[in-house]
Write a structure and sequence with these properties.
The protein is an alpha/beta fold. It has one domain (about 5-205): Rossmann fold (3-Layer(aba) Sandwich). The protein is about 50% helix and about 10% strand.
């Protein structure tokens, strides 16, 4: 089978990260999530901690921007005061994502960070969105947390709002738009194991 890249965007509490980890083990391919921050730090020379602070977070001012700054791939000079800006941190993360997609014979899974958009023109990229209704996400998180259901709901709404704003700011598109993805999976209708099997079956059809 040819090399492929799986990108997974996910709603908070839907189990997308868990599915990505399980899929990585099943397919014996590498899974990239926070490791991308270290790779981007190595590539740019910018402290990894700064990538961590900007990771999937959008400043409040960005939530209300009228003009979006869709990703162009252009880097900011190290001589500029904006070299460590969130925009340039995103550019280096995007560069690492493209490098992973271009490595010969190394399939991988990339979670979040607008990878579906960054790799939209690449062949053998399978773009997945994992989601679930609010009540199901609450049930899932409640089983793993001591937080109140009210606090968990606020956390889900806040994180998903930030993810949507982050995606729209850098891509100009809607994070939860099914048209961005090849496969949308509602985990309230499937177990994580069944979701993994569904993705594996889809890979067999898509990748020759």
């Amino acid at each position: 089978m040819s090399k492929y890249v799986i990108t997974i965007a996910r709603g908070y509490g839907s189990g997308g990260r868990t599915i990505a980890k399980m899929l990585s083990e099943e397919l014996d391919i590498h899974y990239y999530d926070r490791e991308l921050l270290r790779l981007a730090s190595d590539e740019s020379g910018i402290n990894e901690e700064l990538f961590g602070k900007a990771d999937e977070k959008v400043k409040e001012s960005l939530l209300y921007k009228i003009m979006k700054k869709s990703y162009t791939g252009e880097f900011i000079s190290p001589d500029s005061d904006d070299f460590i800006s969130n925009d340039n941190l995103f550019n280096y993360q995007a560069k690492v994502i493209r490098q992973l997609a271009e490595e010969d014979d190394k399939s991988c899974i990339i979670v979040g960070r607008c990878a579906d958009y960054i790799l939209k023109d690449y062949k053998n990229v399978i773009r997945i969105f994992v989601h679930a209704p609010l009540e199901h996400c609450l049930d899932t998180l409640e089983s793993m947390s001591n937080d109140s259901r009210k606090d968990l709901q606020k956390k889900i709404e806040t994180i998903d709002k930030h993810r949507a704003a982050y995606y729209e700011y850098y891509t100009g598109g809607k994070w939860d738009n099914a048209a961005n993805y090849d496969l949308c999976i509602n985990t309230s209708q499937l177990s994580f194991e069944e979701a993994v099997e569904l993705i594996k079956d889809y890979i067999k059809i898509r990748v020759k």
